[in-house]
């Protein structure tokens, strides 16, 4: 009989065709490639020396091709609203959007709080807006997930078990889980193993295919997997400031202000929803809010406390 086939497009457009899989079989999220991006919006290998053209980057969150499909219509919105041109600059698997901002091969970027703090300290990058999440606030949470049959019931049960983390620069996938463990009185050395992965999808797969006992993922992904019965949620973090749209210091002030206005005016649920691709599954589903510097300062304090920001 055919076994379970999972296809996860963008952040959890999960369709599962299940017909009598036997007990003990591994369920794995498939990272589907083959996105259509439109050549006018994907950056060439090197930036073009063209006036009024700006390059946009992003932290890897999900499957790279789905991230591209999601951001391209958003860049079209910025073009219509500001009158400037934007091209997407996806990075390779080992590339760092923080370093791309530092080299100014990327001018604007959607990056998590930890990446922003690193880029701000090293290169003077500034946050323009914070993502507005499902509760209408500029906050998100991290979840610790396990397989449904796992003996792990609570966070402190992680002692002597393995934990899959997100990218080293990920707020939800790396910083917040380390803070959660510290608050629970669990040292990283008390885990049997831990390892960083390049995206939340890869972290989820590491749990689903049995390579790790637990994983730390973004709240939207973890909740959807739990709703599908693929994982259980054993811990949820306190709220943390959500992802940013940030800009390098070399962009002219008038451009920065136009983009800031466009971000704060962005209405992805109604007025500006046409043409967007799965934006409701993004980390900024309701648009953007002004930067809360006090909240970012608190994240910086916690990042320094757990040794992720020097």
Account of the 3D structure:
This protein is α/β, with parallel strands linked by helices and 310 residues long. The protein contains 8 helices and 15 strands. The strands form 4 sheets. Strands 4-3-5-14-6-15 form a 6-stranded mixed β-sheet, with helices on both faces. A 5-stranded mixed β-sheet has the order 10-9-11-8-12. Strands 1-2 form a two-stranded antiparallel sheet. The chain is globular. Mean pLDDT is 84; it is low at 1-41.
Shape: globular
Structural class category: alpha/beta
Spatial gap, N to C terminus:
54 Å
Unreliable spans are 1-41
Q: Roughly how much helix do the residues carry, as a percent range? A: 25-40%
> Rg to the nearest angstrom?
19 Å
Question: What is the strand tally?
Answer: 15
Spatial order of the strands in the main sheet?
4-3-5-14-6-15
Main sheet overview: 6 strands, mixed
Oligomer: single chain
Roughly what fraction of the amino acids lie in strands?
15-25%
Number of helices: 8
How do the helices and strands follow one another from N- to C-terminus? EEEHEHEHEEEEHEHEHEEEHEH
Mean pLDDT: 84
């Amino acid at each position: 009989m055919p076994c379970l086939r999972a296809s996860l497009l963008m952040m959890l457009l999960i369709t599962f065709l299940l017909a009598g899989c036997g007990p003990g079989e591994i369920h794995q999220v498939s990272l589907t490639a083959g996105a259509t991006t439109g050549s006018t919006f994907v950056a060439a290998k090197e930036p073009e020396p063209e006036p009024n053209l700006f390059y946009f980057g992003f932290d890897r969150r999900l499957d790279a091709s789905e991230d591209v499909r999601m951001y391209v219509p958003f860049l079209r919105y910025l073009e219509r609203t500001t009158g400037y041109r934007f091209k997407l600059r996806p990075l390779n698997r080992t590339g760092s959007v923080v370093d791309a901002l530092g080299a100014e091969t990327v001018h604007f970027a959607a990056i998590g709080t930890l990446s922003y703090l690193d880029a701000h300290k090293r290169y003077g990058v500034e946050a323009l807006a914070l993502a507005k999440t499902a509760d209408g606030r500029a906050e998100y949470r991290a979840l610790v997930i396990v397989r449904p049959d796992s003996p792990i019931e609570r966070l402190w049960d992680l002692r002597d078990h393995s934990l899959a983390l997100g990218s080293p620069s990920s707020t939800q996938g790396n910083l917040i889980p380390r803070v959660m463990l510290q608050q629970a009185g669990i040292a990283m050395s008390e885990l049997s193993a831990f390892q960083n992965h390049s995206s939340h999808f890869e972290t989820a797969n590491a749990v689903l295919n049995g390579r790790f006992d637990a994983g730390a993922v973004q709240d939207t992904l973890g909740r959807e997997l739990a709703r599908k019965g693929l994982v259980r949620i054993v811990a949820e973090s306190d709220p943390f400031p959500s992802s940013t749209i940030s800009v390098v210091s070399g962009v002219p002030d008038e451009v920065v202000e136009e983009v800031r206005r466009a971000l704060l005016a962005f209405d992805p649920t109604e007025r500006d929803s046409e043409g967007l691709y799965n934006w409701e599954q993004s980390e900024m589903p309701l648009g953007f809010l002004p930067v809360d510097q006090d909240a970012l300062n608190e994240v910086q304090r916690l990042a320094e406390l757990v040794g992720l920001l020097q």
